[in-house]
Amino acid sequence: MAHHVITIAREKGSGGYDIAKRLSEKLSIPFYDRKLLRIASDVSGINEQLFGEVDERLGKHEMLRAAQKVYTGEVLPPDSDNYTSQQNLFQFQAKIIAELAETSSCIIVGRCADQILKGKPYLLRTFVHAPIEARIQRVATYSLAWTEAEIRKYICDEDKNRADYYRFYTGEDWRDAGHFDISLDSAALGEEGCADRIIQALPIFTHE
Predict the structure, then answer these.
(1) Rounded to two decimals, what is the model's pTM?
(2) CA dist 57 to 49, 65, 103, 193, 200, Å?
(3) pLDDT tens digits, residue range 48-85?
(4) Domains of the chain
């Protein structure tokens, strides 16, 4: 079987997780979302909760600093004073992403994976988006107590967190279409349609 790695960047509420799950079932390959945090925790010995607290969001200290722009792939040793710093947590997670991608076919949701793996011949980089109304409707299905205004604010805040995180660690604009091979409107195509189009694109954009 050919070696394929699919990265899925996604707007909040666009269904990226569910599309990744469908792809995983159709292609019989694993997908990694928050599971990456547990793997990084196991490898580093750092509490998983610390990874969760900075998952696709910047800490206050990082918000005041300039963008890193370059992923080095290097992690600090356990005796370092900055071993549990947010930047080292990112490096651990990025190292896991790179190793998983080299080892076998998989799907990776978010977490700058498209930039971490940039240039790999087996890589298909996707971005999933949808109109805000459709995203509000989706989020409302699991946030029943929230008003529409609260859901809209939550979505906008989460998108900003992801964009800021992406810019800090890559120096790039999260919504720049130039970073992705295909961009899909999940409201127009549906989850099944998005999954099918990603599968159709695999032989076009990947070369292994």
Answers:
(1) 0.91
(2) 14, 14, 27, 30, 32
(3) 888 888 888 887 666 546 555 556 667 877 878 788 78
(4) 5-203 (3.40.50.300)
